[in-house]
Amino acid sequence: MQRGGVTVTAYPNWTPASRPGIVPLHPYGFGTILGRSFVALRHNPKVLLGFALVVQAVAYIVLAAAVGAIAVASFSRLDTVAYGGDDWGAIFAGSTVITGAAALVLSLLVGALSVVVQGVVVSEVAHAVVAEKPTLKAVWARVRPVIWRLIGYSALVVLASLVVVGVLAGIVTLLVISVLWLGILVGVLFVLGLIPLYAWLTTKLFLVPSVIILEGAGIRAGIARSWRLTRRRFWSTFGVIVIISFGFSVLAQLISVPFSLIAGIVPGILAPTGTDEIGAVVGMVVVQVIGQFGILLVQCIALVVQSTSAALVYVDARMRVEGLDHDLHTYVEARDAGATDLADPYLVGVGRVVERPAPVPVGAAPPYAGYGAPAGYGAPAGYGVPAGYGAPAGYGAPAQYGAPPVPAPASDAPATGSATPADRSADEAVSGPATPPPPAPPSPDVAPPAAPTSWAAPGSPTDR
Hints:
Blueprint: E1 2-3, E2 6-7, H1 30-39, H2 45-75, H3 86-129, H4 136-143, H5 147-178, H6 180-204, H7 208-215, H8 219-229, H9 234-270, H10 277-322, H11 324-336, H12 421-431
Antiparallel strand pairs: 1-2
Helix pairs in contact: 1-10, 2-3, 2-10, 3-4, 3-5, 3-7, 3-10, 5-6, 6-9, 7-8, 9-10
């Protein structure tokens, strides 16, 4: 509406405060990223727990069952030939190749499914930042257009890793064949060099899936964006990766070791005399399956948490560099005010650079300290310091005015802190004799004193 030629906008009704998301809408720190990565699991359990964990668990179970069935079917042919013959060796080699190839192909399929799960998690976390709980259909609508880019990037990473490892392994093999000790030494150096290289590249490329999903970027553009966004944030990003990976690895070992010990004890308990070998084997297999299922569950949760942390690192990096927090605030306020057809806040300020003021160190003066009066405005002329008050820090009394006279106390003896006659004489010499202030006019609210009267009560001694 128009008021005085100015457009005024207002909410049509009272609007409650915006709901908080899983992170504050301002740059946050390492602890927030680490803690909220686990909080996101219960923010939208239908998507994160109901889809991501179940899909991964089913995929890994199907993978293990399929590889096991192929191995049993291929190696069972060894029972039809004599052990140690030419046919036995050929069948054994062929069964090994078939089983390995099947395991590789199925592992790649499961890896592609894990990439899809990672995309779903990143998309859901992007909604959770602005306090939204989308359905799986809405999340998939964001992931579906870029799913092949995610799979292509994952395949590119696997292919590059295989090429690097294959080339280095070939160099080491040739050196071992020619000079054994030199080959071993170079192999150890290669392994020690690959560890920091892997950590560095993993950290710098940690945000590529988030960039592809939330910005719709291509593989090359996603790699360049992740490289820029992790600039000056390498160690915090590396710390998130290490702590989450190390924590879940320890948890997996805590589950694996006890079940492995139990699996070694079960045969002796079920078949102490060695007569019930089938029952002992079945018991050991059951214990191992339970332990592996626990490890599988931990790995699935680890993938979800690590994908969540990648999305949060991406959001924090863009808040610090591109002012994404302002775009998110604008989006949330407009959405809660009832606006529709809003632009995606993650696409508004892509690539811009926002200069933020440097943080004030603890104990330092605020940024506005040291500013004086505005230009053209000074202290009023002709006024000294009021009686009983010291001059402000850095300011003295004007040169042409001395200290104001202090009235003498009522008693003859000078009071503590009062001016002596000598001091008053000195003041009068500087600023002239002190003139007494004029009497204050009577207040209209106070009635003047009544005139005396000669009236007295009849019969009183004064009634004359």
